[in-house]
Design goal:
30% of the residues lie in helices and 24% in strands. By secondary structure, the chain is an alpha/beta fold. The protein has two domains: 3-18 and 260-386, Lyase, Ornithine Decarboxylase, Chain A, domain 1 (Beta Barrel), CATH 2.40.37; 83-253, Alanine racemase (TIM Barrel). Helix 5 (96-104) links the parallel strand 4 (87-89) and strand 5. Helix 3 packs across helix 4 (71-80) and helix 8 packs parallel to helix 9. The chain starts with a helix and ends with a helix. It binds ligand LLP. Ligand LLP binds at residues 46, 48-49, 67, 90, 145, 147, 180, 183-184, 215-218, 252-256, 291, 295, 347-348. The site of ligand LLP has 23 residues, from helix 10 and helix 11.
Amino acid sequence: MNEEMLVRAAKNFGTPLYIYDLKEIENRIHKVQKTLEGVEHRIFFAFKSNSNFHLLKRMRAFGCGADVVSMSEYKMAKSVGFTSDEMVINGNGKTEDELGIYLKDKVRYINVDSMEEVERFPKNLSARVAIRINPNVDAKTHPHISTGLRENKFGVDMKEASKLIHTLPANLKLVGLHCHIGSQITDVSPFIDTLNSLKLFIDKEDLKLEFLNIGGGWGVDYLHNGTELSTEKYREKIVPLLKKIGIPIHLELGRFIIGPAGYLVTKVLEIKHSSFKNFIAVDASMSTFLRPILYNAHHHIEFLSNGSKILVDVVGRVCESGDTFGKNREVKTPKVGDLGIIYDVGAYGYSMASNYNLSLRPAEVIFDGKDFKLIRRRETFDDLIRL
Ligand code: LLP
């Protein structure tokens, strides 16, 4: 999306503003499909990465199913129009009540996270289940978003999985295996290790499965230096393994599909020169966009200005020093009122926004290649006080 369009959107809808480029989302879904050409597969969109009602509707129209992890995500999937058969249920600590609702509704399947969870399934209803395997593979990502190591809370190891399979109650039908080793993975090797051990397990147990759910986790190029997970390498190294496994593949992708399609437009409020540093304060903050403070995540930032280059910290207005979008960044010196763009915020952006410091959550718009459309209005103080 070009600068002119971003300026136009900020003028029409104010700042801070999340903008999503629909064409880019569609292209990225096609990129996944192309990468997996020759392998029967289905993408379930990870709601947690972006749960805007309107965007979810688009995801369904693009052919994605729903990967949901909470009762509210489930209700959102229903409201958006996903049928039960298009929903996969994930997460740990599912309650008996929640499981009862999923089972009555006959969701496509539930990824079982533990031996203990099996006990909580209602005994009088049947369900299709997949077992979430924790393969103890290092996804080489930030520790908060690694999920496939044995110290992580998710899934069961192969030994437990085997026990589970042989002791599943008659009302639970094993239809697949599930494995999600982490998020923002940019190297194919953890996927290779995972698939090799899953294949061994399937063969050893002589499992006849409907599908293998390999989760999400495909990493994007936050650094803008070509570090996105290489789909060429994926095609070369992973696709043959998937073909060898020989059953339909389910994916639960979020970030790869929508991350780079999202922009956060923010306005410069102050340029502060201290004797030690320069700071640019903008009207977005850690309440608008949490990833930098939470994971020390790098996001590319640009100011729409013709000024000379300056070294700065780009900060928000929340009362914490960690409320910083980038440290020691070389940017074009803006003027107060100029716009800044924070890139690749489509995933885990708005969905992790908060009201900290009673910040009001921003508006969201989509761009269809021609026009912008408001898909969530800016929060108001009345919205906050209503509760
Ligand atoms: N499936 C399961 C079971 C998951 O736990 C996740 C993400 C996904 C799929 C989707 O992963 P993706 O394709 O988006 O990488 N807030 C963090 C990311 C947390 C991811 C949690 N699970 C961040 O901002 O980096």
